[in-house]
Specification:
12 helices, 346 residues, 7-stranded parallel β-sheet
Length: 346
Amino acid sequence: MSKSIAIIGDRFMLPSMFAEHIRAACGNGVDIRSLEQPWPDEPMEHGYAGSKLDGLKEFMGQPDEIIDFIGDAELLVTHLAPISRSMLERLPKLRFIAVSRGGPVNVDMRAARDHSVLVVNTPGRNASAVAEFTIGAILAETRLIRSGHEALRGGEWRGDLYRADRTGRELGEMTVGIVGYGAIGSRVVKLLKAFGCKILVADPYVQLSAQDRNDGVEHVALGELLGRADVITLHARVTPETTHFIGRDALARIKQGAFLINTARGPLVDYEALHDALASGHLGGAMLDTFAVEPVPVDWPLLRLPNVTLTPHIAGASVRTVTVAAEQAAEEVRRFLAGEPPRNPC
């Protein structure tokens, strides 16, 4: 008997991409049905600002509609669909969930374990995309790309940006601090080496690779990194420990004129404190791709500051991310159907 697989994708993680890779990995002995959600053309829910579903983070879809679509499927492959405890109680046949994300933030993991549902994810799916974007973000700030662009678009020729007291600095003469040394942070380290900058890493849970140690990368405490770095880029997960860990105290320890880059998650930063540090000139600038509430309010104070670059949470968006995540999810489906252990259990 063929296994029933429900696919809930969207306009980034295309259902057709999931289906194509699952069929390639598993053959024709699967019964696939697909649903496409309207993200990113319509915003998802963000539990960081107060979840409506048992503390779930970053999800899209109404429980009743999701349950009706999954029905009697034994396997679910999804990007954003929520799976809460109350939903699992109404899905007794569901045994497997593949979430095409770095973390299963749209699934109640405790409830999944209680219901004997295996949950897997796709870690590192967007590591290359976010790392490349981070390098671009750093350059946009340190080399005044954003400042020059905005002025020229407004009809102003900023020839003064060539003045020695105003022009930017090259990465090769700077110290860059990387907070978080996972799949993305470690890749940022690799890319930064080509610029010849001094690299610091703060992550209490992992050790540097032998190659990075040999190349002169330093593993330091967060406090030391904040005080030494000219550029600080965040690549940590949101936990109770890291929520708002870049707050007033941390910002006060950052050296005058330094830059902050956040392509990780909005709740890592106290944005009110960041606004004050930027407005006072203590920080030279910031580049932010993620926010505690998305979309950001149109009257958000940070939108009015001249020394901030803002993008709509697109660091991980690339065609390659879609392909990598679909391949990883399909392999997990194959392994589950074959009775093999998962590669990336949650």
